[in-house]
Amino acid sequence: MSGDRRETPDRTGPPDDGGPDALFEKLKAYEGQPAAQAARGRDPVNTPMIRHWCEAMGHPAPPDGSAPATMLQVWTMPGLDRGRSARASAYDELLGALDEAGCTSVVATDSEQEYARPLRPGDEVGYDAVIESVSPRKTTKLGTGYFVTTRMDIRRAGDGALVGTHRFRILKYRPAARSAPRARRPRPVVNRDNAGFWEGVSQHRLLVQRCDACAALRFPWLPGCNACGSDSWTAVEASGRGTVYSYVVMHHPPFPAFDVPYAVALVELAEGVRMISNITGVPHDRVRVGMPVELEFLRVDDELELPVFRARTGDEEAAR
Asked: Are 292 and 319 in contact (CB under 8 A)?
């Protein structure tokens, strides 16, 4: 397993302030000290666990009934309620020193295994781990920190025969400062029933449907007339002028693509149909029922433009 390792030495600045890399000198002293001592595997090697692992990984079960060699780490995993029980104090001190220096984030970067002999159902394992190395301070795309490598020697309980070796490398780092990109506005759902409306928007035209049988106007777009049921219709352009029939001011829940609070109104067009959209050109707390509005098209991003309604020029004071 490998992470993004594009790195360069960083001898100045954070995470420490005690010289070029005073923290590294402190961390280096932990090399060779234990990371885990006299630990035992939680369960003996067993056939059900081998079967479940092989099914989950799509790995063929060894015909002799032994555990696949790549299962090695499974037999040393302590479980959620025993995650720290075998850790040596030196390893906790090392991680604590990194936390105090601001390197509070962690990502696994490498895992290497060497296999000496197979494990069979009924075998039990024990292991010891050592802090093998700590890198000088590194700057990666994730942030600035230190690579810590531990080596675990896994032995068969009873005769102490070496089963395998597992090296595990993590990066403990201070995350790089990033400005989060603004979330995109949700995309409208365009289908065969409303495609004509969105084509009109792309041409800066507000199109509604007029029934060819009874001349009733309708919005939103529907496949059939809700007055007489006819499925024959013609698209006609609305004037874009109207009044606020009703409205709400959105405060919660916040959504990254919208700056709360903002007003969402049900606008009654001059033609008599109503549509929901945002009100612009006036603060949210100045929106009122009956406010005159007119259509405008708001460019949200490079791909999306939406019809919204602005308080009509000259009418804002009257609406206050």
From this structure: yes
Phi, psi of 73 (to 5 degrees): -65, -30
Rounded CA separation 249/265 (Å): 9
Q: Which of 18-22, 82-86, 283-287 has the lowest mean pLDDT?
A: 82-86
DSSP 199-214: HHHHTT--EEEEETTT
Position 19 pLDDT exceeds 80: no
Q: Which residue has the tokens 């149909």?
A: 273
State the pLDDT at residue 38: 87
Instruction: Answer whether residue 59 shows pLDDT above 60.
Output: yes
Residue 296 near residue 308 (C-beta atoms within 8 A): yes
Residues 8 and 120: their CA atoms lie apart, in Å, by 44
pLDDT in tens, 259-309: 889 999 999 999 999 999 999 999 999 999 999 999 999 998 889 999 999
CA separation, residue 288 to residues 24, 152, 163, 313 (Å): 64, 70, 77, 15
- H or E element at residue 129: strand 125-134
CB-count burial class (<10 Å; 0-12, 13-18, 19+) for 6: exposed
**Low-confidence winner among 117-126, 248-257, 261-270, 287-296 (lowest mean pLDDT):** 248-257
Q: Where are the domains of the chain?
A: 8-175, 195-319
CATH code at 8-175:
3.10.129.10
How far is it, in rounded angstroms, from Cα 32 to Cα 69?
Answer: 27
- For the record, the structure tokens of 79 come out as 């479980």
Would strands 207-211 and 143-156 be described as parallel, antiparallel, or unpaired?
Answer: unpaired
Average pLDDT value for residue range 141-150: 94
Question: CATH says 195-319 is which class?
Answer: mainly beta
